[in-house]
Write a structure and sequence with these properties.
alpha+beta, 17% strand, binds iron/sulfur cluster
């Protein structure tokens, strides 16, 4: 995922919080300026949450795609669960009461 990290220099007070907390060293302070290497960003959003000046903006360029993939995975899991339940019911092997009793730890 490509992320563009930008900082409002007028708000930033060079406190160094983002430099400390970023897990992939996107930020560095040198010569009195905050340097940003957006290509390292993994979009954890920690800097956005912790910057005391709310000076950091993150733009995930393919966030929509990520959400679509996540939704597709969830849908697939749900479909698998439904299919399994239906198959068990059709085979008359699905008995919630019996299955729950079996799962209750009979010695
Ligand atoms: S945490 Fe915010 S205010 Fe502090 S250096 Fe980073 S961008 Fe600037
Ligand atoms: S979102 Fe996470 S990885 Fe990206 S710049 Fe902020 S702290 Fe670093």
């Amino acid at each position: 995922m490509k992320v563009i990290v930008s900082v409002d220099e007028a708000s930033c007070n060079l406190c160094g919080t983002c430099v400390e907390i970023c897990p992939t060293n996107v930020f560095a302070i040198s010569e009195g300026r905050l340097r940003i290497e957006s290509s390292r960003c993994i979009y954890c959003r920690g800097c956005e949450a912790l910057c005391p000046k709310k000076a950091i903006s993150l733009k995930a360029l393919d966030e929509g795609l990520k959400i679509l993939v996540k939704n597709a995975q969830t849908a697939t899991q749900t479909t698998r669960q439904l299919t399994l339940t239906q198959a068990l019911k059709q085979n008359n092997t699905y008995n919630p009461t019996k299955d729950n009793q079996n799962g209750a730890g009979v010695a």
